[in-house]
Automatic annotation (TrEMBL):
It is found in: Membrane. The keyword Phosphoprotein does not apply. Keywords: Membrane, Transmembrane, Transmembrane helix. One of its GO terms (molecular function) is transmembrane transporter activity. The chain crosses the membrane at residues 71-91, 111-134, 141-158, 164-186, 198-218, 230-250, 293-314, 326-344, 356-375, 381-401, 422-441, 447-467. The lineage of its organism: Eukaryota, Fungi, Dikarya, Ascomycota, Saccharomycotina. This is Major facilitator superfamily (MFS) profile domain-containing protein. Residues 1-22, 35-61 are annotated as: Disordered. Belongs to the major facilitator superfamily. Monocarboxylate porter (TC 2.A.1.13) family. PROSITE patterns: MFS.
Length: 480
């Protein structure tokens, strides 16, 4: 009996240390997987990973500062980084609408859409790679090149005049730069906080929506005064200041954690893990044999289809309905502003209502507001802005709940692998969603057809979320 207990204790300690690793498949990178979709990483983490006994073992094995100048300076770096990188992603609609009506007005909307499709694809798809690079080389060695690329990409965007130049400067250069920034800027928080991780992420994550508000308004204010090229340069100089501070403050405990794990496992602490080996373990197609997980992947895919289309084309839609460019960009600001609350409220309510219950509710809200307000009454400014606020809140809710739902049906050691597999497919959905939507706008259906398509994909996502919930609990009224 005593021998069995000792074996169990040894097994638990090893599991704790494995989960404490800095690889993508570990517990620390829950902060990264949450960060991609903007979740606050609240106490739901405890629901995913176990009970207080695990937490005690974890805190006993690896100490976290839980505060102090170094820790909170990393949080500030993450906040400023989110304002720049994710904020730019939330402002792409402001850039797309201007190019469509001005610089690239002789180019088809479908061709223009590839600029932003590539940007979105590289940002999300590349973030998995930057997560591995962060685990191997630490934050600064990934963030500094990403910062240089992002500022340089914006300056190149300012000088671009043709489609292929915008594809290279904004789509590829800025997209790759954002992918290099996203994972390290949030994963580093997990190196300094454990019990207070939710608080720390709650301080940093609003930067994504805040950046969307700021840069949309900068575009609205400056396009008419100094033109597109200098507006991009102004944003680039702002990024230079923000990201300069980020590069100075960002830090990590990669070497300390590697030495700790090496001591426990009896391995050489000077040997870095192979980047290629880690990348190969990020995606596991065998997980698709789990029908519940597969339906969740379909739900996430359709959800991203709808939200990318809507967030990118809201300004262009508004202009097509006769609204001014200023109103169209204010509408995008309303979406991002509502998203600040949407990133928190649904996540907190999921503690008592259930993750799948809440994400299904948020997805159904997205679908209803598209078909009830946007599609039939988009020409009315009051209805249009009401749609923007409700949609912004609900779409942010689905984004914040997505990683929580993924983790809820995954074993702890498979969480990163499953999340990587899911967003491997989602990133390809991001690549084709904008060209498909823009092609629809060129038909007789116009932007109403695009809105209907966004509503249809949102409805498909809602059905898939509800079916996933049904597979887990049937029709029972339970927290799930």
């Amino acid at each position: 009996m005593k021998k069995s207990l000792n074996n169990l204790k040894t097994k638990n300690v090893k599991t704790s240390n494995d989960l404490n690793s800095t690889s993508f498949n570990n517990r620390n990178d829950l902060s990264f997987t949450n960060s991609l979709q903007g979740t606050t990483a609240t106490t739901n983490e405890d629901d995913v990973y176990g009970d207080d006994e695990y937490q005690e073992q974890n805190s006993g094995e690896l100490k976290y500062p839980e505060g102090g100048w170094k820790a909170y300076s990393v949080v500030l770096a993450s906040l400023l980084g989110m304002v720049s990188s994710f904020g730019l992603m939330n402002s792409t609609g402001a850039i797309e609408s201007y190019l469509e009506k001005n610089t690239l007005k002789t180019t088809s909307t479908t061709t223009i859409s590839w600029i932003f499709a590539l940007f979105s694809f590289l940002t999300f798809g590349g973030s998995m790679v930057s997560g591995v690079l962060f685990d191997t080389y630490g934050a600064k060695r990934v963030v500094i090149p990403g910062s240089i690329m992002l500022v340089g990409g914006l300056m190149a965007t300012a000088n671009s005049t043709t489609t292929w130049q915008f594809i290279l400067s904004f789509g590829i250069c800025c997209g790759t730069a954002c992918s290099l920034l996203l994972a390290p800027l949030v994963s580093c928080i997990g190196h300094f906080f454990n019990k207070k991780r939710g608080l720390a992420l709650g301080i940093a994550m609003p930067g994504a929506s805040l950046g969307g508000v700021i840069w949309s308004q900068v575009c609205r204010s400056l396009y008419g005064k100094i033109g597109f090229p200098w507006t991009m340069r102004v944003i680039g100089f702002c990024f230079l200041g923000c990201l300069g501070v980020v590069c100075l403050l960002v830090d990590d405990r990669t070497e300390e954690i590697r030495k700790h794990n090496a001591a426990v496992e009896g391995t050489d602490p000077t040997v870095r893990p192979s980047v290629w080996k880690q990348l190969r373990t990020l995606i596991d197609f065998n997980t698709l044999k789990d029908k519940t997980f597969m339906t969740l992947v379909l739900a996430l895919l359709f959800n991203e289809f709808s939200l990318i289309l809507t967030l990118t084309y809201i300004p262009s839609y508004a202009i097509s309905k006769g609204y001014s460019e200023s109103i169209s960009l204010t509408a995008l600001t309303a979406v991002n502003g509502a998203g600040i609350l949407g990133r928190y409220v649904p996540s907190h309510l999921s503690d008592s209502w259930g993750k799948f219950n809440m994400i299904s509710l948020m997805s159904c809200m997205m679908t209803l507001v598209i078909f009830v307000l946007w599609l039939p009454f988009g020409y009315n400014i009051g209805a249009f802005f009401t749609f923007c606020v409700i949609f912004g809140f609900s779409v942010a809710g689905t984004l914040s709940l997505s990683p929580l739902c993924t983790s809820a049906i995954s074993k702890p050691r498979d969480m990163g692998k499953r999340y990587g597999t899911a967003y491997f497919f989602v990133s390809f959905g991001n690549l084709i969603s904008l060209p498909i939507g823009s092609a629809i706008t060129q038909t007789s259906a116009g932007y109403n057809g695009m809105a209907a398509f966004a509503g249809g994909t949102s409805a498909a996502a809602s059905i898939a979320f509800l079916y996933t919930r049904y597979r887990l609990a049937g029709f029972k009224r339970v927290k799930i």
